Automatic annotation (TrEMBL):
CDD domains: REC_YesN-like (cd17536). Pfam families: HTH_18, Response_reg. SUPFAM superfamilies: CheY-like, Homeodomain-like. The modification 4-aspartylphosphate is found at residue 56. This is Response regulator.
Amino acid sequence: MKIVIADDEKLIRQGLAYIIRQMEASDEIVASCSDGEEALSYCLREGADVDVLITDVCMPGKDGLDLIAELARLCPHIQTVVMSGYGEFDYVRRSMREGAVDYLLKPLIKNELQEVLERIRQQKKLAAIANEGKRESPMIASIHQDHLLNALFHHNPGVAPEARAFLENGFGIAEGAFRFFAAGVAIDEKADGRFRQADRMLFQYFVRKMAEEALFQQDLVRGTAWQGQDDFVVLLFFVPTGEGERESEMMDALKQLLAILSSHVQYPVTIGVSSGAERFSDMPKLLLEVQAALRARLTIGTGGVIDYEASQRLQRQWNVQPDAFHKVVTATMLGDAETLEKELGVFMDDLYEAGIHPEVLLDIVLRLFLRVGSMLEAKGVVRTGEPGTADLGKLLEELRRCPTWSMLEREVRHKLAALSSLVREHARQIKPTFITDAVNYIHEHYQSDLTLAEVADVVGLYPTYLSEQFKQHMGVKFVDYVIQVRMERAKKLLRETNKPSFEICEKVGYATPAHFTKVFKSKVGCTPLEYRESWRGIRKI
């Protein structure tokens, strides 16, 4: 068998290798590694020629537990044995859960080591008989490439030299002779279509395969593709230095790839492209630029190729309208779902049309929620730490998980609607019964010539006392609330029916159209006809 040893103590590695060679002449120590990262790199590179890994459980950097877990996922054919000292049984137990087939206690006893290796040898013989004729998985080379390139782009100094050598030897490139560009391909959910993890994996496999076939195998451009660590496939391009026309060819090739992907995938596809770099050490910067370009699809939109420079040209400030926050906050705090939907639609449309940078946009949305949250606490709707209060870190994290405008708008609407619902529930719980009865009576009889005395008689109170309590609990005077109810009903009829104004006037409790129009304009700011036309205009957008 071919065996890899991983231990940070050189004497232990040498002693273990000596013992194994003495026990079985056919066993070969193919690698002696001082840490988990080195062992993992070797196994990924030479995985087909490795049978057994014997590793210490405690090593600096990537320890034995992490090493075992990654090999179980990436190279499941490699049998792993863990070594540990006395008093480290918890590590042993965890290593067995991660996939180790056995363990050895230090100091090692030759007979125990011999029994473990012989047991593995017999298991491999039985597996070979059961799987005779089956071929080795072709995925090992791809996994090795993914491991190296991700290490290079995420600035892992332990693996970077090997990754650079992989690019130089495998693709014939060198610093100074080429400029490097990176691109990320992202496929997003729709508002009505959520992804499962299996869907994401399938999309990523498809993107990688199509990129290899459409770009690199056709020699349109030089480069390679791999699965990044950020839920998108990464493309790396090699453009000869001094050949600027090749950069435009690269962008044309990416547009062709986008067209191919979009024709097969019924979800938004976006490609983000970095600027160029000439050193391997600049690879992490290229990844950051790809991430920035893809974040810009939040305001630029999906379905296109976005370069890093375009993402940086987005506006860094927004001229907030004086009442932009106020109208949305007020509608939320009144628990008025209908008005909230309208005012939030105007607010979000204004944000989108401004073409501002995603970070600025998220900051504006955060400030909106913080304002609502502080008012909810001030009015006693929620207490600090309860659902509905402003947790800046958690809220920002949730908003960042909305890469597209439709997803962000859906999230904002959902959250504000939930907060508005809290306001309504709070108001219902704290109002005295006589106020609730008065409000219900108003909603049932607003079409008639309602008076304070009539409602007071219904709930059994003096009119002056009801007037005082109504103002205290409802926030408006009795007569203003009646007008508010009538206006909301009138607006609903104007929006949802074609009834003429004089007919609506009668249905909401006004004797003459002139009086109705006068009150409507003073409260809403326009005539009933103007309101109907403006609302229909908004719905067409």
